Amino acid sequence: MTLAEAPTIASVSAQLEQSPHYLRIKKLLIFTCTGTWETNPDRLAAIDLRDLVAQTLAVRPTMRELRPTLENLVRSLNKPVEYLPVAETILRSLAVLYPDEDPTEWFRTQTPRPQTSVLPPQEWFDLRLELVNRTNPLRIKILIARALRQGDVTPTAPWLTVKGLELERLLPDLLLACPDYQELCQRLETIAPQLEEPEEYQQVVGTLLEVLKPVYQRLHKLQTLSDAEVPNWSPPAGEAVEAVVVGPEPEVVAVEPLGAVPEPVVADIADIPDIPEPAMPEPGVARVSDLFQRELQELSIEAELRRLVSTAVHQVIGDMEQVFRNLEADLETATRHLPPATRYRYLKQFVTQVQDMADRFAQILHRLEERGQ
Amino acid sequence: MDAAELLQSYSEGKNDFSGEDLRGIRLNQADLININLSRCDLHGAELVFAYLSRVNLQGAKLNNANLSGAYLAQANLAGTDLNTAQLHGSVLYRANLSRTNGIFANFLDASLVEADLRGANLSSANLRGACLRQANLSSPRKGGDRVNLRRADLQGADLQGADLQGADLSWADLRRANLKGAKLLHSNLANANLSNAILHEANLNDADLSEAILNRAQLHQAQMVRAVLMETDLTDARLMQANLTEAKASKAVFLRCQMHEAKLTRADLSLAVLRQAQLVQAVFHEAYLTKADLRDADLSQANLLKADIGGANLTGANLTGATMPDGRVMN
Q1: Mutate to test the interface with A, among B68, B74, B109 (most CBs of A within 10 A)
Q2: Which residues of B touch A253 (CB under 8 A)?
Q3: pLDDT 10s digits, A145-162
Q4: Could you tell me the pLDDT band of residue A366, with boundaries at 50, 70 and 90?
Q5: Cβ neighbours of A223 (radius 10 Å)
Q6: Does A311 contact B at CB distance below 8 Å?
Q7: Were both Cys, which of A55, A136, A359, B225 would link to B205 (CB 3.0–4.6 Å)?
Q8: Is the CB of residue A212 less than 8 Å away from at least one CB of chain B?
């Protein structure tokens, strides 16, 4: 491809403008960028699609972040079937603007990210035990991977393609992807007949549903907001703050991209069709409980991020003190015939150099931050 | 003998195929329950999703074989050669894997519940996410082969209640593993990584944990009597009511550890870092705390009777109600 042929924001926007779902594309992108569901035709017309595409790239800098955002959003609308192809169109079109992303790789590689804290670690183990005691672990993995479109689950040798995936991650991913039990049933029951030896997978589906049913029931009860009308479940905020320690080491995963966190539930946001329909609820208005829940989630994420930073700082300070002590002892030995001031000078040099390095890191981060804005 | 011949004979009622040369045989998804394949050469064989429950594979050569997803419940795999074999997601419930050689074998997410792994050599094997609840991995105190899990990948593995007495787990990766109530007496965990591992009520008496990493490990009520914790990193670990009597924890790092009511009687904590540790009501009776770093530690109501705190740094430590080495109770 020559530079001239390379896709640009303008060319992708122009292509999207040709879509019969142009307005729906705009609505989904506006929500992705701003968190608001715009239905006013004048305002929709006034917003330039190019700006929206550019903003989307900024707020969701990777495909792995954009995809779950759109999927969760579509799921929460009251017209998910109509909006699913629209979301797919967006993903297909925008994929070319993510230069580091090979769209065919979306489902093949498992993103390293912490497990969510929907259950305490011990319960994940108990859950896995129950599953592997009752059905085949490899088939569970193949089924879930297929349901989540993770790994390249080809019909010929699916076991080869889930080799890089772990049940430890697949299970929480499944719970996150299916916020309610009905959706879980639907998704798994659709997948099983598509796999080789479908009757074997029907048994796996039955077991998975049976084992996970009480989990869903309990998680619903755990919801901090006893809003019986909220149809979708999301992890209780309190648990997230508690940061249940399952999942890869923080040193492996520094900060989880916000895109991986379940999106705010917008179940009550009525989707006003492009041709107005009668008797629709107030458009564009999220219920207070939804907003409150969203806020709780944001707070819990913030608390978790702060906790990670604080832990890292404590670790560095602890390590630094140790290094300092060792250096002091070494210098003491090496300079025992010299005045103490020599030792202090070198100790000061150590501190200054560390400080310089920290300043350089801060400068780099500052630049990155500015560039990201 | 090829796959068709074997399946034909098996369907006709033949059950004993012991000692056969079955190298590279393809028996994926085959139903071979109860078959006798002992001492067979199954090098590179393909047995994916095969039904091999109660099969006799004693002494068989299965190196490089693919047994992913195979049902091997209660199978006899004693003394088999499983080096570099694929057992990804296989079911080995109550299987006999004693004296098995499984160096670099892949047991990712396999079920080894109640399996017998005594004397097995699984060094550098991949046991990530494997379920080994109540598995027997014990080694005799004297004589006999010690279970070898040196450098094994046991991340997220479930070893709750497993018997790992005397096992060699040095350099093993046990991050996020579940070792609740596991028997780890006399085991070798030197240089192992147990960060975020669950070790509640685990028995680590006389275990060697020197230079191991136990960051954020959960060790409530763990038994660690006489355990070797030299230069062990226990930063942010939870050791409430843990028993560290006579533990050798010189230079160990207990930074910010939760150690309420921990028992550290006669423990060697010389040069240990206990900074900001929560040591409320901890017992340091006759403990050796020379040059220990106890800055900003909470030692309220701790018992330091007859402890040696020479050169210990107690700057900023909370000693309210603590019993000092000379029997004095601090206000």
Answers
A1: B109
A2: none
A3: 888 876 555 556 777 778
A4: confident
A5: 16
A6: yes
A7: B225
A8: no
